[in-house]
Write a structure and sequence with these properties.
Blueprint lengths: L3 E5 L10 E4 L6 E4 L1 E2 L2 H9 L16 E2 L5 H15 L1
Antiparallel strand pairs: 1-2, 2-3, 4-5
């Protein structure tokens, strides 16, 4: 099945913005957002999660989600839970 569109940043223009989808087959949430700046990436690498190796693996990235997008993320979480039923 194709990804289910959930929502887009309410303050978006026409040149990209945070967007959320849910994969109905896996219930994964798929996010498009801003690439984190170097300062944020450095902070993530210097403060790894407890028990987690420092650094960002080559197959991962750090994105920044604006606070105004939280409502859309909640909707995406709800859609992901429904997909698992």
């Amino acid at each position: 099945m194709p990804l289910q569109f959930v929502g887009i940043d309410p303050d978006t223009g026409k040149n990209g913005s945070p967007t959320a989808w849910v994969d109905p087959d896996t219930a994964d949430i798929v996010i498009q957002s801003y690439t984190a700046d170097e300062k944020t990436r450095d902070e993530c690498m210097q403060n790894p999660a407890p028990g987690h190796a420092p650094g960002i693996p080559d197959h991962e990235t750090v994105i920044r989600i604006p606070a105004r997008f939280i409502t859309v993320l909640r909707e995406a979480c709800d859609a992901a839970e429904r997909a698992q039923l």
